[in-house]
Amino acid sequence: MSFAYLPLFTGDYLRDTQHLSMSEHGAFLKLLMFCWDQKGPAPLDERKLCGIVNARSGDEVEALRRVLSEFFVRMEDGFYNKRMQREVERSEVLSRSRSDAGRKGYEARAKQLPSKSQAIAKQEHLTPSPSPSLSSTQGQTKKTKSTLGVAELVSMGVDRQHAEDWLRARKEKRLPLTQTALDDVNAEATKAGLTLPQAIAKAAAKGWGGFKASWLLEDAARTTKTPPVGRQAALEERNRQAAQDWLRMKEAQDAAATS
User: Fold this and answer.
1) Is residue 128 part of a domain?
2) Residues 208, 211, 215, CA angle at the centre, nearest 5°?
3) Residue 72 and residue 81 in contact, taking contact as beta carbons nearer than 8 Å
4) Structure confidence by residue, pLDDT tens digits, 224-252
5) Where are the beta strands (DSSP E) in the chain?
6) In the chain, how many domains are there?
7) Residues in the chain, pLDDT under 50
8) For a tag on the chain, would you pick the N or C end, based on fewer CB atoms within 10 A?
9) Average pLDDT over the chain, rounded to an integer
10) What span, in angstroms and rounded, lies between the C-alpha atoms of 40 and 120?
11) Shortest CA distance to 148 belongs to which of 175, 178, 170, 173?
12) Is 60 helix (H, G, I), strand (E, B) or coil?
């Protein structure tokens, strides 16, 4: 996933921010954009924060403070938004995975290309090579079409039931298990921090014909998605926040009057 664009989930955003004012919306979106571009937190310095969100008046600064209090967590190195930090980490993982896959694909294609000396030798060699015998051709064809089965997977430490279920899923998708395909699954398992038996067990449980580290991340993101907050709870939280803001403002006015 490229960091050239911000993944904004409009449904989630609108559900959680319907109580915000226009100034608070602006401050929140500007902070999210900053965290995405920097791949990290917003600064702790309030002057820098005001510069990021273009807060000029006292009301705009107060809007910034309310947004930070409600949607961000203060840490030693800055203000973090939990959802944005998860998206940044997820995008970095996907970006590395795709980069590694592209590099491996290039290396595999490069191995198939003849070297310069091989190309010259092929051009200079004028004597035709003898045709392979029928028996040798059949042997090569049989070797090329050979596939792996349950016994081979079990010998690698895969549970027999997992192996049978996974091979059945591959058969339904017309995906014969060759050594090349198994090597690719093993490489993806390593990216995900799993062993080959663990990756095949996960694929069998999910009905996947193959295994990709990115599939595991997407599946985890779907299962850990926060359920929507009830409308009544959101209204009560908004009222509570408004009451606290009014009390703070009243105390500040009283303090200024007595001084």
Assistant:
1) no
2) 85
3) yes
4) 655 555 677 777 788 778 878 877 887 88
5) 73-75, 78-80
6) 3
7) 1, 141-144
8) C
9) 82
10) 54
11) 178
12) helix
Whether residues 240 and 223 fall in one domain: no
Are 181 and 238 contained in the same domain?
no
- In SS3 terms, 202-250 reads as HHHHHCCCCCCHHHHHHHHHHHCCCCCCCHHHHHHHHHHHHHHHHHHHH
Q: Structure tokens of 176?
A: 């014969």
pLDDT of residue 1: 47
Which residue(s) pair with 73 in the sheet? 80
Closest CA to 65 of 252, 228, 229: 252
Alpha-carbon gap, residue 214 to 217, rounded angstroms:
5
Q: Is residue 121, in this structure, part of any structural domain at all?
A: no
Give the CATH number, domain containing residue 39. 1.10.10
- pLDDT at position 16: 93
For residue 40, give its domain range. 1-100
In a domain, 146, yes or no: no
